[in-house]
UniProtKB/TrEMBL annotation:
Originating organism: Jiella pacifica
PANTHER family, sorted: PHOSPHOGLYCERATE TRANSPORT REGULATORY PROTEIN PGTC, THIAMINE-BINDING PERIPLASMIC PROTEIN-RELATED
Keywords from the named record: Periplasm, Signal
Designated name of the protein: Extracellular solute-binding protein
A Pfam family per the record: SBP_bac_8
InterPro entries to which the protein is assigned, alphabetical: SBP
Keyword check for Signal: yes
Record's GO cellular component terms: outer membrane-bounded periplasmic space
Length: 354
């Protein structure tokens, strides 16, 4: 064989080797699983969920999370209007989540760890936190002023001391905030003190807000002396960092809600979405809720039950969990909701209701 023939043969062998290697690499790429991307639409602050999401993706490296944040009412409107639904929906507005399940938009999830019965519904909707609703106050404003113990005392104080309270109290705009509306309707079920308190807030020209964080900022600055019905977990995170703030559980009762998650029926990644739900309620997920976020874990082995919550707040109280049940839909009936909002607006604006 001539030198030229040997060179040609060598070149051909090299070419064949390159082609074989390229084929093998192509085969490997073709057989490698594609990364699943889960679209999560949520009414929970990204900062509160970031460690939890990072923990999940670390445990499931083949799954990525695309996280979009809304307020509770905006989230509901977006989910109902969307042609392409997200894979998962997370919200603190329990009634709106039950509504999505009732409309047939949720998919069952199997093998979810056991949790309290009040915090799950039809194996389609799962709470993963327990968070009290609280009263936030400015410590300097109340340095020489008694704090209220009950809602009745709070209503009387606001009514009897206009110089101190007028224009300096805040609460949710229940027409704008889905979770604020849920808190207000749950209060209303507890008796006449709720309507009396709203009327007192109206006389004091209460300011209304979309979000707990806005109220926190106003109380910290001293523009408000107190804010009623704030989300305790969000507010407590700021209280720990800001000595101007105090947080109190009124002794008559404290509502407790659960932040809940569902997998949409439209999801084309139901198995991966189910993995996310199971992770939230796993030991690892609940530990991240406890240690890696401002939220409070649902499972009592991590939260240590009522003592866990009360040790973080001033005051002692009876906790009233809001149950994930169809009864929440009562207040979403169009006529009932319209009347409630009309009466609430009349009271908060200082008008008598006929």
């Amino acid at each position: 064989m001539t030198g030229r023939s040997r060179a040609a043969t060598g070149a051909a062998c090299v070419l064949l080797a390159i082609m074989a290697l390229s084929f093998l690499l192509f085969e490997q790429r073709s057989s490698a699983p594609e990364r699943v991307v889960l679209d999560v639409w949520s009414a929970t602050d990204k900062t509160a969920m970031s460690a939890i999401v990072d923990g999940f993706t670390a445990a499931h490296p083949s799954i990525a999370i695309n996280y979009t944040e809304y307020n509770t009412s905006e989230l509901q409107e977006a989910v109902l209007a969307a042609r392409e639904k997200p894979d998962l929906v997370i919200s603190s507005a329990m009634d709106l989540q039950v509504q999505l399940v009732n409309l047939g938009l949720a998919s069952p999830v199997e093998d979810v760890p056991p949790t309290p019965t009040w915090s799950r519904w039809r194996e389609e909707l799962f709470g993963f936190t327990q968070e009290p609703v609280a009263l936030l106050y400015n410590r300097k404003a109340f340095a020489d002023h008694p704090l209220p113990d009950t809602r009745s005392e709070l209503a009387s104080m606001i009514r009897d001391e206009p110089a101190f309270f007028n224009g300096r109290v805040g609460t949710y705009d229940v027409a704008l905030s889905g979770v604020g509306y849920m808190f207000a309707t749950q209060d209303a079920q507890r008796g006449f003190q709720a309507s009396r308190l709203v009327e007192s807030l109206g006389r004091a020209k209460a300011k209304i807000y979309c979000c707990t964080n806005d109220m926190v900022q106003e109380v910290a600055s001293g523009d408000l002396v107190l804010a009623y019905n704030v989300i305790g977990s969000y507010a407590l995170e700021q209280v720990r960092q800001d000595p101007r703030l105090g947080i109190l559980l009124l002794s008559d009762y404290a509502l407790v809600f659960t932040r809940s998650v569902l997998v949409t029926k439209a999801s084309d990644a139901k198995e991966a979405a189910g993995d996310f739900v199971r992770f939230l309620l796993s030991d690892d997920g609940q530990a991240l809720v406890d240690k890696g976020s401002s939220l409070f874990p649902l499972i009592e082995s991590f939260g240590k039950g009522q003592a866990f919550v009360e040790s973080r707040f001033e005051g002692s109280t009876s906790f009233l969990p809001i149950r994930l049940r169809p009864s929440l839909l009562t207040w979403l009936d169009e006529r009932k909701k319209a009347k409630f909002l009309r009466d609430w607006r009349g009271s908060i604006n200082g008008r008598s209701i006929n």
